[in-house]
Specification:
about 425 residues; alpha/beta; 5-stranded mixed sheet; 3-stranded antiparallel sheet; about 10% strand; globular
Amino acid sequence: MNGQVIRTAAAAVLAVACSAAAAQSVEVMHWWTSGGEGAAVGVLKKDLEAKGVKWVDMAVSGGGGEAAMTALRARAVAGNPPTAAQLLGMAVIDWSGEGLLGDLNEQAAKEGWDKVVPPALQRFAKADGKWVAVPVNIHRPHWLWMNAKIFKDNGLTPPRTWDEFNATADKLKAKGILPLAIGGQPWQEATAWEGIVLGLGGPDFYRKAVIEADAASLKSATMVKVFDQMRKLRGYADKNFAGRDWNLATGMVLKGEAAMQLMGDWAKGEVLAAKMTPGKDILCAVAPGTQNSYLFNTDFFAMFKVGGDRRPAQLTMASSVMNPGFQETFNLAKGSIPARSDVPMDKFDECGKKSMTDLKAAATAKTMYGSLAHGHAQPAAIQRAYLDVITKHFNSEQSSKDAAESLAKAVAAAK
């Protein structure tokens, strides 16, 4: 009997210890698995561990987050969601609508989040006036990255219009230099596409065609020109682009195997990880024609409803993410800019400073819009309709006119 009592007591002590250990840990789902992204994640992990909170990594690579969303859905359905999950804007809204996210309002009020987070981001971070997620960064997806040596050796300057881009690419191609590194995945193709929509059509056209999904705009002559430019992009890429991850395409530019890449500023994280200097070794400019506008996407850590014993560690994580010092350090490593408006920019490179300056100007001019490719413009079902048409056109000989008409029909059917 005494032995049984001892065993029971030992089991109880172990259970309490395990519970305490769980309470002082956070399980975090994310898809930051490239070199530059891994370095950025390490900043948060180190910060939390310094506060006695263990980081349990749930990294899921592939598909720009699609694989991670599949894994998250399985966990949530099983009633066992992680403490926090990396989500893009529309996904935060979807998950909060299912009543699965926790309440961060007390922490937000204590630390004054409402005063420092731009309203455009709060739209996604809040549900019914309640903070349910914390923004980590602000990314700008429509950048053009260029190998400085290739441009200097060939007497080239960053193109400011799509006509200039084509002329530059044609000159490089004639010299046997690969003009463009691209990865053949739907989200990457859509990243290029939305930059062309903005650059050729302007901010009002982007708003109508993407944010409002206006049928007339989707099948307009301007949209036909957008698909014409996409066809030109494919001609500037190599034959092995299908399925290539974005960071491998970035690596091609870093190594001088290609001259340019159209990709978000997370590519800058790869530049930094390669010990190269943005703006010097790798030139940065916004995608042609998009100089006076700003598309954005933000990574959020959505906080799922967890047991009371896990809440303290979860709130510690939320507070750490919103800390100005972390926002500075993380975004310096990630290539993005802080989600807080009060973080000094003096440590950021010229590409980062330009991004912050342009963000403020676009917000004032009301030419700041959410990115379709990165989950900040349309709900998932409608976004998929866009991406399906874009990738079908890019990977086939479908005419631009047929693609524009198909886009209008697909979006209407998805609404």
